[in-house]
Structure formats: structure tokens, C-alpha cells
Design goal:
6 helices; 4 strands; mainly alpha; globular; 202 residues; two-stranded antiparallel ribbon
Length: 202
């Protein structure tokens, strides 16, 4: 499975199939070039992503064709998905409504051995959304979904697959983002303490 979007952040991709969702989020963030910055780049990225996914899934890869509106919709979907994962631990702050509404579908076929295979349907941004829905559902049914997270450092925003035993990770890299945020928080506390008026009782 293609994982360039994720590995360029220095991250290990999520399990095969599910890393499609991780890769989609990681098409930007972390100071890396935006792979959805223009139509040609977006098409090139998703064509490679879909080809690799199709080879693994054993289904034919549909033709990819984007227009500017498709690109804009993908950028919006990426931001919404990142926000959803960011607020996963705080249901009251999570966005409401649907990430992907009506008009997006997926095809189902059954092989001779009884195996059911899902294939993305549609054109433009809906083809991407269809693939994301297929892999998100598969990840939810196999309990992988809760391990896909977005780095707590908002300036980073990288999507990482949490492999910790108790699924407690919050930084894509604790040495890069964790230490930076903790140091910033510590300095802010020291500044606040220094600026506080003296206690009259002392």
C-alpha cells in the first residue's frame, strides 16, 4: 500500500487498507507540501493510492479524474475528518452532522469462496469519499478505528496510528511535538507565576 503521505512525516502506516484514511489526512500537515494543493497533484496522489489499494484488495482500479471543485471538496473533507479525530475524546466538542452524506456509495461483490469485497464507486471527490468510507467501516468492525489519531499539537496535525498497549498516545512523536508543547506550557506557567501579584498574607 502506498504510504508516502504518511512516511514523509516519519510515521509508520496503519495496517494495510486502513492506511488509506491515514494517508488522506497526511496529505498535508507537519510542514510538508500539500498533496491536494492543485488538481494535477491531487490526481497523481490518489491515482497511486487507489492503484495500490486495488492491487491489495483484488479489484480493478477506477479511473481518477478531478476538477477544481473536487479538489476543494477534498480539502474540506480532510479538514473535517481531522477535526473529528481531534475531538474524539471530547464528544461535546465534536462536530455534528455527517462528514460524508448522501450521494456517496460503495459496491459489493461476492467471490466464489464467499468472500465479500467492497469497491469504491463514483467520480471525482466522491470516489475518494467512497474509499474512505469502505476502509473506515472495516477499521471500525475490526476495532482499529480508535487507534487512528491526530497529533495534539495543532501546528502539526499529523495522523498517526497509536500502537501503545493501552491506546494512550496523543503525540505523533513525543520527542518532537510532546516535548515542544510541554516546554511551552511550562514556560507559560512560569511567566504567569512571575507576573502574579504578591500574596498579601505572605
Amino acid at each position: 500500500m502506498s504510504s508516502t503521505a504518511t512516511t514523509r512525516h516519519g510515521l509508520t502506516p496503519a495496517p494495510t487498507g486502513f492506511n488509506v484514511v491515514q494517508n488522506f489526512i497526511n496529505t498535508d500537515g507537519g510542514g510538508q507540501p500539500d498533496l491536494l494543493a492543485d488538481v494535477a497533484t491531487a490526481e497523481q496522489w490518489f491515482t497511486a493510492e487507489l492503484a495500490d489499494w486495488s492491487a491489495t484488495a483484488g479489484v480493478a482500479a477506477p479511473t481518477v479524474s478531478f476538477g477544481e471543485r473536487d479538489r476543494q471538496r477534498l480539502v474540506e473533507l480532510r479538514a473535517q475528518l481531522r477535526q473529528t479525530l481531534h475531538h474524539r475524546g471530547s464528544p461535546s466538542d465534536a462536530p455534528s452532522g455527517w462528514l460524508v452524506g448522501s450521494g456517496v456509495s460503495a459496491g459489493l461483490r461476492q467471490r466464489c469462496d464467499g468472500t465479500v469485497v467492497a469497491s469504491p464507486q463514483g467520480a471525482g471527490w466522491k470516489l475518494v469519499a467512497s474509499l474512505l468510507l469502505i476502509e473506515s467501516l472495516a477499521a471500525q468492525t475490526s476495532s482499529l478505528w480508535p487507534r487512528l489519531k491526530v497529533c495534539r499539537n495543532e501546528a502539526c496535525g499529523s495522523a498517526f496510528y497509536d500502537r501503545s498497549r493501552n491506546n494512550s498516545g496523543v503525540w505523533h512523536d513525543v520527542l518532537v511535538c510532546g516535548n515542544a508543547i510541554n516546554l511551552r506550557t511550562s514556560r507559560a506557567r512560569r511567566r504567569a507565576a512571575a507576573a502574579a501579584p504578591p500574596d498579601p498574607g505572605e
